[in-house]
Design goal:
Blueprint (H helix, E strand, L loop, with lengths): L1 H18 L4 H6 E13 L12 E12 L5 E15 L2 E5 L6 E5 H4 L5 E20 L4 E22 L8 E7 L7 E11 L2 E8 L13 E9 L3
């Protein structure tokens, strides 16, 4: 998430600088979108639980193509999407099959208590939207986005299950096995001016088909369009 935040800040700074140099006509066609959301995970294996809030963030920049003189337009762009899967389980890889299974921490290490445990994954996305914008600044959009995995890692903070000391353990492992490398899904947004409600329904699971549990996220949150 820290890497995503750094990239987000740099991107906003670049867009702000760029927006000062382009014409007013071009500025009206270009928009930035910041989504702050929670992921709701469906089809969880028995015994696996997630937090109520699994916070995430999207940042994208899109160029708007108006359809004639109507209130409709088509927008296409690029973006980054960072997601978190907080749970009571570790992703465990079977040595013989290479498949990933979610195993409860307390099943693997009885008596272990922890403060944080999550899988994080970030995608580089290409969003496409069909937009409606009325004269009174009502906005609505439906679309589709596809993305490629650029980062995945786990993060744990709690009892020391590795060395069995009394110290608190904080550990991070990169490149989670079998996380889906290519994702796609349906997007929707509606609101007034620069504040909107947003949603993303993933048509792919967290893990590759046949290589892990069929868990998929539904993202629901608030979308801001400052530029």
């Amino acid at each position: 998430m820290k890497k995503f935040t750094i990239i987000l800040v740099l991107a906003i700074a670049t867009l702000s600088s760029f927006s000062q140099e382009i014409t007013e006509s071009t500025r009206k066609k270009f928009s930035t979108v910041i989504d702050v959301f929670t992921d709701i995970y469906s089809n969880l294996p028995k015994g696996i639980e997630t937090r109520t809030i699994n916070q995430g963030m999207n940042f994208s920049g899109l160029y708007d193509y108006r359809l004639g003189k109507s209130n409709l337009s088509v927008a296409i762009g690029v973006g980054l999407g960072a997601h978190n899967f907080y749970s009571n389980a570790f992703p465990v890889v079977n040595d013989s099959t290479g498949n990933t299974k979610l195993e409860r921490i307390k099943t693997l290490y009885p008596g272990t208590e922890y403060k944080k445990n999550k899988i994080s994954y970030t995608y580089f996305d290409i969003p496409i939207e069909f937009r409606l914008r009325t004269k009174d600044e009502f906005r609505a959009a439906v679309g589709f986005k596809m993305g490629w995995l650029i980062d995945s890692h786990t993060k744990y903070k709690g009892d020391d299950y590795l060395f069995e000391t009394t110290d608190e353990l904080g550990v991070k492992f990169r490149d989670v096995r079998n996380v889906e490398t290519f994702r796609y899904g349906i997007t929707a947004r509606a609101g007034w001016k620069f504040i909107n409600l947003t949603g993303f329904f993933s048509l792919t699971d967290i893990f590759k088909k046949g290589k892990g549990p069929d868990v998929y996220p539904i993202s629901v949150g608030i979308s801001l369009m400052p530029f």
